[in-house]
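Action item from last meeting closed. Structure (439 res):
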């Protein structure tokens, strides 16, 4: 400490540079050279004026203050007061609480994309916003996923009896299929020699593999059913009319893609049920007039040959995991953007066209997405997940028959259940002759 705290002695004015008349500058009293010190340069030459009295401790302390967090800098002036007595310590404690609260509030605002501690607590308690303007609207600007959702909806359009949450459930099933499908992809090989064995391995050797396969199958069946019900609801309520005509068109295409996604995944287990169901399903394409051109080539493109083999399995796999999901995701984005940003969800006709102005005004009352609709969606997601997992774990198990055999046709072979109506039409006494007449 003596080295850091000693002050630099002033040079003497004589020519030989004596300090206090004892030794020349750069030498001790015995005539030996003096090494440079932190306060001096070569041979003990001064670096700092004696009037400044700057020490190494001062420089280290200054550097620490400069690099300290803002909260610590704000407390430094109060540290000396804390040493002065009880009153100083009380002031220091109050200042520490104030600085800590500000830092914690800023951290929460950064995490929540705009809401402080008080507003976050009010959000989870269901209370109205505390700050003005509404900080919950900032979340829609700063957060990516919240930015995808509107700030508010018209109250009548959010009634469960109007939409039955079918659009939301359709998106939920698509996400469920994506997650479980990616997990199954890790253990599956699209080969006619290994596909069936991989499915058996998933069901018997992979932890929770049976559950993942059951969830994927249940999600696929439910997605087809829910999308059909969603389109039916939109049609019956007249929500397909302008200005929602283009949205309806994208919905029709998404319905077709939903059928294609489910049908393309039907073949992947490569068992007798899958093989012959897809064989019947693809053979129906032969009936598309004119059969020699459209019917033949559409069937050839899907199968990859006259019969379903390795080429057909690989084509169905690539369509199921790459092409169709990519197209579906793009159209879902367009469809959702039109609903969320362009025209919104249609109102119930009984309230939108009611002669009473008060009823029409109440129907268009705004309801914020945060927290009312957000918590409602979380509740629906939790309930749906619970029901699907319980049903898949204890009630339904995805079937798996023996290995596919092109030489053995099982009894009562049919197309997938959502194509049974097409298979029935082709067997009808009127429809089949009518199709043949178009050739």
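Sequence:
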């Amino acid at each position: 400490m003596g080295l850091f705290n000693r002050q630099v002695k002033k040079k003497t004015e004589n020519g030989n540079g004596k300090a206090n008349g004892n030794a020349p500058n750069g030498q001790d009293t015995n005539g030996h050279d003096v090494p440079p010190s932190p306060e001096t340069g070569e041979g003990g030459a001064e670096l700092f004026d004696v009037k400044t009295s700057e020490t190494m401790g001062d420089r280290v302390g200054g550097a620490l203050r400069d690099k300290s967090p803002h909260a610590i800098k704000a407390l430094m002036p109060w540290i000396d007061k804390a040493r002065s007595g009880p009153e100083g310590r009380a002031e220091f404690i109050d200042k520490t609480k104030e600085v800590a609260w500000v830092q914690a509030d800023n951290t929460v605002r950064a995490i929540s994309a705009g809401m402080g501690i008080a507003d976050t607590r009010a959000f989870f308690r269901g209370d109205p916003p505390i700050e003005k303007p509404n900080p919950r609207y900032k979340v829609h600007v700063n957060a990516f996923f919240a930015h995808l959702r509107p700030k508010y909806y018209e109250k009548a359009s959010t009634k469960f009896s109007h939409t039955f949450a079918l659009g939301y459930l359709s998106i939920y099933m698509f996400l469920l299929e994506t997650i479980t499908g990616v997990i199954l992809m890790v253990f599956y090989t699209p080969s006619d020699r290994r596909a069936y064995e991989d499915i058996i391995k998933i069901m018997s050797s992979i932890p929770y593999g049976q559950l993942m396969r059951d969830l994927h199958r249940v999600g696929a069946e439910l997605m087809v059913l829910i999308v059909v019900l969603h389109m039916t609801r939109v049609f019956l309520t007249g929500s397909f009319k302008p200005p929602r005509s283009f949205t309806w068109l994208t919905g029709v295409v998404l319905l077709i893609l939903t059928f294609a996604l489910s049908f393309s995944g039907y073949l992947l287990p490569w068992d007798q049920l899958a093989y012959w169901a897809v064989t019947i399903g693809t053979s129906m394409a032969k009936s598309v007039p004119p059969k020699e051109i459209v019917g033949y080539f559409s069937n050839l493109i899907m199968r990859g040959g006259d019969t379903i083999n390795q080429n057909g399995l690989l084509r169905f796999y690539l369509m199921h995991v790459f092409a169709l999901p990519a197209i579906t995701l793009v159209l879902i984005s367009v469809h959702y953007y039109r609903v969320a940003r362009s025209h919104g969800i249609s109102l119930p006709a009984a309230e939108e066209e009611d002669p009473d102005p008060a009823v029409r005004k109440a129907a268009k009352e705004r309801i914020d997405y945060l927290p009312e609709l957000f918590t409602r969606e979380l509740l629906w997601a939790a309930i749906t997940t619970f029901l699907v997992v319980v049903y898949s774990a204890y009630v339904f198990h995805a079937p798996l028959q023996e290995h596919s055999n092109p030489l053995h046709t099982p009894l009562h072979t049919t197309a997938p259940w959502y194509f049974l109506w097409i298979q029935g039409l082709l067997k009808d006494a009127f429809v089949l002759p009518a199709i043949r007449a178009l050739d």
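Note appended to the action item: The beta strands are 152-154, 366-368.
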